[in-house]
């Protein structure tokens, strides 16, 4: 999910008969659909100004070309790929765009490094800063800037590798990425969180206890996550909600055992879908998407958030 401050619309990812869709819900309740080019569910969304970015994961981990990052207007014009998608060629056929990693000077990296990135291009999250290029996170915690024209560049914020080491190092498994409340972003895994401020040094915080890894339909590992106003992280994993404080202490939030798809005044009477998106609005309300199972979006407010 994403919130458009420009017009107050809530953007929700949906999967309609295998075709990914972006549903726009306006302040007046009007519903629209933004066009998309790829099948399957959107992994992450972000809005900056009047533009929305959508991240589509690869369904085949051995083929990075199937992943894509698109930019389009919140009014619903045709998506423009930053990487992935398709190029038309002679004869009316289409071919995958090749993902190219470049160095700080803009030159392509070695073929060996390119092949290694291609094999490990498993996207889990997206952050669009106020200025500059969008940032995507891989499952192993590495960060890349999306420069456009299918070019990406490795990003290593100050203190980031040390922070990763504090929450698992090479064993770290990223399952979500969320915008931080004071700027920057948070990369989350079962063992802990890495906070990357807009200006400053990254910090790794271990979870106590760890949060169970999430597996959707047996093969797609992912979480839903958002950062609350006080800096706590709210995580949806395995049909449960967890709240992790800035000190790393994790507490479960009581919910129903199963999704009833009936309107419920409390989380204890509803349950959390297996694949859940979470989003904190400017007024502090948390939105929870249950579109895939119940075709609804719920809002709630947590105490001391």
Structure description:
The chain has 305 residues and is mostly beta strands. Helix content is 7%, strand content 39%. The protein has a 5-stranded mixed β-sheet with strand order 11-15-14-13-12, with helices on one face. The chain has a 4-stranded antiparallel β-sheet with strand order 1-2-3-4, with no helix packed on it. Strands 5-6-7-8 form a 4-stranded antiparallel β-sheet, with no helix packed on it. 37% of the residues are buried.
Describe the structure concisely.
The protein has helices at 111-119, 160-166, 291-294, and strands at 2-4, 9-16, 19-25, 31-34, 44-48, 51-56, 68-73, 80-83, 86-88, 94-96, 100-102, 123-127, 135-138, 143-148, 151-155, 176-179, 185-189, 192-196, 203-206, 224-227, 233-237, 240-244, 250-253, 277-280, 286-289, 297-300. It has 305 residues and is mainly beta. The strands form seven sheets. The protein has a five-stranded mixed sheet, covered by helices on one side.
Please describe the topology of this protein.
Layout: E1 2-4, E2 9-16, E3 19-25, E4 31-34, E5 44-48, E6 51-56, E7 68-73, E8 80-83, E9 86-88, E10 94-96, E11 100-102, H1 111-119, E12 123-127, E13 135-138, E14 143-148, E15 151-155, H2 160-166, E16 176-179, E17 185-189, E18 192-196, E19 203-206, E20 224-227, E21 233-237, E22 240-244, E23 250-253, E24 277-280, E25 286-289, H3 291-294, E26 297-300
Parallel strand pairs: 11-15
Antiparallel strand pairs: 1-2, 2-3, 3-4, 5-6, 6-7, 7-8, 9-10, 12-13, 13-14, 14-15, 16-17, 17-18, 18-19, 20-21, 21-22, 22-23, 24-25, 25-26
